[in-house]
């Protein structure tokens, strides 16, 4: 069994987590495959002597990697997904960050989680992605997002207008600071912060949510995920921002953005004793009296 591990940063607080993780992988007889920069950090900052292969790009996941783990927060999880792409390699996130909807296994419980994985007491939860096409192919082959695609104003306080079409049928021109198109996975991310609905994984929908709309009667819209969404921006400036899961690039006025459901899905490991409803309830403190 070859197990890939990705993390953005090694800190004094997280070094014990990496040490315990590596020890368990060794005890299970699995082969550890580390992202190249992560391996360098573990050797330099933690003094770990690691007999581990390295990966540097998504093609490496087509060469015999069986499982992928991320250690960090949801941003780290999303970066790991960008390596996995269409390889089919399942992923599990260990949370050393803050909220953690995707990386939902705490650093205090991950030994139990790894043991369940070793015993194959888990299932896969399919998560859809968004594929983005622009006139200038801004993102090249890295044009997929697991959470959301966002169009935003740039370097100005003026609102922008985002013209929106569904299957070439006009939906609306949003006067706002921006517009989010989110997957069910991304419903608990930026979409949630902007008043969008929470959608359970497995629902075959996309969510269109304006950011600070000028018209108070404009509300988020949930649409089937087989409907292509076409967007373009108008405003007082020439350049604006497009963001795929936080990876922002510049986009020109009236440059069209076509958003479709990606042709593949991500296999997220779901352990026997965890479910989305428990995660939502616990992370958002639903049902708890916190008035005092």
Q: How would you describe the overall organization of this protein?
A:
The protein is α+β, with helices and mostly antiparallel strands and 292 residues long. The protein folds into two domains: 146 residues, Rossmann fold; 132 residues, Probable inorganic polyphosphate/atp-NAD kinase, domain 2 (Tumour Suppressor Smad4). Helix content is 19%, strand content 36%. A six-stranded parallel β-sheet has the order 3-2-1-4-5-6, sandwiched between helices. A six-stranded antiparallel β-sheet has the order 9-8-19-16-11-12, with no helix packed on it. Helix 1 runs parallel beside helix 4. The protein is globular. The mean pLDDT is 93.
Tally of strands: 20
Secondary-structure element order, as H and E? EHEHEEHEEHEEEEEEEHEEEEEEEH
The unreliable regions are: none
Main-sheet strand order equals 3-2-1-4-5-6
Q: Indicate the overall shape.
A: globular
In the residues, how many domains can be counted?
2
- What's the CATH C level of the largest domain? Alpha Beta
Helical content band: 10-25%
Q: List the total number of helices.
A: 6
End-to-end Cα distance, whole Å, is: 50 Å
Kindly report the CATH topology of the largest domain: Rossmann fold
Q: Rg, please?
A: 20 Å
- CATH architectural designation of the largest domain: 3-Layer(aba) Sandwich
Class of secondary structure makeup: alpha+beta
Q: Kindly estimate the percentage of residues that lie in beta strands according to DSSP.
A: 35-45%
Within CATH, the superfamily of the largest domain carries the name Probable inorganic polyphosphate/atp-NAD kinase, domain 1
Major pleated sheet:
6 strands, parallel
Q: On the 0-100 scale, what is the average pLDDT?
A: 93
